[in-house]
Amino acid sequence: MSGIRKILNPGNLFRDLRRKDHKKVFGALDIFKYIGPGLLVTVGFTDPGNWAANIAAGSGFGYTLLWVVSLSTLMLILLQHNVAHLGIATGNCLAEAVAFHIRPIPGKLILSLAVMASVATSLAEIMGGAIALQMLFEVPVKIGAVLVTIFVIIMLFTNSYRKIEKWIIAFVSIIGLSFLYEIFLVDVNWPAATISWIKPSIPEGSMLLLMSVLGAVVMPHNLFLHSEIIQSRQWNLQEENIIRKQLKFEFADTLLSMLIGWAINSAMIILAAATFFVQKIEVTELQQAKSLLEPLLGSNAAVVFAIALLFSGIASTITSAMAGGSIVSGFVREPYNINDNHTRMGVLISLFGALLIIFFIRNPFKGLILSQVFLSIQLPFTVFSQVYLTSSKKVMGKYANSSFMRSILIIIALIVTFLNLKLLFDIVFK
């Protein structure tokens, strides 16, 4: 009772409020230290490639491919947490871990394919931003691509990780609010959408789009990027209790961010299904989507669509280029550092490699779709490498994957590989 009276005493209360020597406690609000890495990854799977794949899926097959978004998001949560686990436990990103622990020839092959994946990703991102500039200001696509590339270079070469994270959070918020606004303008068949989220269905002729949606959500460059951002924080690598708390809070960040991405991707398919599919209009380019939205939903919706696409293109180009920098730095066993020439070379390879290809693409929308297919084909190389590294006690010590988690991750890798083989079979023999 005396303790309670002491606490309730007004004099003691005000004296305590004036104190500045309170002991720091690792409490609930500390989770905000860990918010950021997951949202940067979220940008990667709400990028223009996703827009193209999702709108094509929704306009061509209605709600039926929503389950692919659910499945790929579930796989993504496990994969992204696993690769962040690597960064926290070892202090190395995925690219560095490949260079350190996988033999030189296969290691360089894996990293080379990852660089190509970064270029393919940047292609989709830059193209999306350029298409948005064309929608808004009638800027030619190729000139728009140059403008987006220049802006991203300025952002990356003049800002730190933490500043970029704040920009990315703002971009994700704009994209999310844009689709929330547009979803409320359409008549959605929610029972059909709900069933499609959980019921697998592969309509005839949908395999290419299915793979595009998968490649647009589970992206190789994001696995490299997430581990890079985590290790760049240089969190405590010695105290076990701190590491475990970091893993817990990182998982919360990853889970929340991936669910936001799931909602945005689902909204894209639902919007396309509720507008274009019901009108029996198959969308073959993003410009077409904007022009078709205007008579259906009004000019405001069309402009909001274009603005969200622009922010998506810029934000995702930034993250893709960062991944390219991380991967190239990994070749020489170095972390990402924009002031280092290896990182700068990786950033520029990703951006200018993509820009060069854009100048030879005749159909931008088809280019976006095919870039996502390439990512899904490259994905097994990255995933199997990651599972090998995170399951190795030599690499991870006591934080190596359990037998159960290793099995789950191998199943995910096998699913991705199976879908890739089926896609190649369909392309070659049909």
Question: How does this model look, in words?
Answer:
The structure is a single chain. With 430 residues, the chain is mainly alpha-helical. It has one domain (33-429): Amino acid/polyamine transporter I. The chain is 79% helix and 0% strand. The chain is built from 19 helices and no strands. Helix 5 runs parallel beside helix 12 (220-232), helix 7 packs across helix 16 (341-358) and helix 12 crosses helix 15. The longest helix is centred in the middle third of the chain and has 38 residues, at 240-277. The protein is globular. The termini are far apart.
Defining key terms:
Amino acid/polyamine transporter I, globular, 430 residues
Helix content: over 70%
Which CATH class is shown?
Answer: Mainly Alpha
Using the alpha-carbon principal axes, give the shape. Answer: globular
How many helices in DSSP terms?
19
* Helix-strand pattern: HHHHHHHHHHHHHHHHHHH
Please compute the radius of gyration using only Cα atoms: 23 Å
Question: What is the element layout, followed by pairings?
Answer:
Blueprint: H1 2-8, H2 10-18, H3 37-44, H4 48-61, H5 66-90, H6 94-101, H7 104-137, H8 141-158, H9 161-183, H10 190-198, H11 207-217, H12 220-232, H13 240-277, H14 286-297, H15 299-331, H16 341-358, H17 364-390, H18 393-396, H19 403-429
Helix pairs in contact: 3-9, 3-12, 3-13, 3-15, 4-11, 4-13, 4-17, 5-10, 5-11, 5-12, 5-13, 5-17, 6-7, 6-15, 7-8, 7-15, 7-16, 7-17, 8-15, 8-16, 9-13, 9-15, 11-17, 11-19, 12-15, 14-15, 15-16, 17-19
